[in-house]
Amino acid sequence: MTLDEILGLSPVIPVLIIDDIEDAVPLGRALVAGGLPVLEITLRTPVALDCIERMAGEIEGAVVGAGTVISPAMRKAVAAVGAKFCVSPGLIDGETAGGPAPLLPGVATATELIAGIAAGFTCFKLFPANIAGGVDALKAFASPFQQARFCPTGGVSARNAADYLALPNVVCVGGSWVAPAEAVKAGDWGRITALAREARALAPV
């Protein structure tokens, strides 16, 4: 699948930090059951790569990707364990959009956007969205960067996600609110499925 196709599958991409590998599959299944099939597993814990491999292999209907990818070596590593896409908080020098795990790079400024477009990217993660100007920044980017599409992440919540999704240059948003840490720790998969359903309903009609 192309990155455009992946990002178009769901209005919200859960950004997941998984500490216990035993939580990975039930967490992913709960989110997919609620209508959020695209899952971003951040490389912030020692079990992240193992979680990606298990989720990619065991969860029907899931499109599993990796977040916090900050080097070419990390990109190769996540592709090797089955990641279908990867997300970076910034531009990675020398990396391009395609490959076995298409890359969604982070940008926060017009200068970074210009560099990303020059490298062949058309989809970007606005990060951290709440600090980089949020909805107003995306509105400002729309005219001079008409080819760019965004997945804002950072400070996006159930309260403001619809404001982002209403913008024509926003494909989806990324956020962690659909998988609260306390719910994961308690194994409250029903609550997580319910939150995923609410997030799914944010998709513009």
The major pleated sheet works out as: 4 strands, parallel
Mean pLDDT metric: 97
User: Can you identify the CATH superfamily?
Assistant: Aldolase class I
Number of DSSP-assigned strands: 9
Annotated CATH architecture: Alpha-Beta Barrel
Secondary structural class: alpha/beta
Q: Proportion of β residues?
A: 5-15%
The proportion of residues forming helix, as a percent range, comes to 25-40%
Radius of gyration: 16 Å
CATH topology: TIM Barrel
Number of DSSP helical runs: 9
Helix/strand order, N-terminal first:
HEHEHEHEEEHEHEHEHH
Q: Give the overall silhouette.
A: globular
Distance between the ends: 24 Å
Low-confidence stretches: none
Give the CATH level 1 class.
Alpha Beta
Secondary-structure blueprint:
Layout: H1 3-7, E1 12-16, H2 21-33, E2 38-42, H3 48-58, E3 63-67, H4 72-80, E4 86-87, E5 103-104, E6 106-107, H5 110-118, E7 123-126, H6 134-142, E8 149-150, H7 161-165, E9 173-175, H8 181-186, H9 189-200
Parallel strand pairs: 1-2, 1-9, 2-3, 4-5, 6-7, 7-8
Helix pairs in contact: 2-3, 2-9
What does this structure look like?
This protein has 205 residues and is an alpha/beta fold. It has a single domain (3-197), classed as Alpha-Beta Barrel (TIM Barrel), CATH 3.20.20. 39% of the residues lie in helices and 15% in strands. It has 9 helices and 9 strands. α2 links the parallel β1 and β2 (38-42). α2 crosses α3. It is globular. The relative contact order is 0.18. The mean pLDDT is 97.
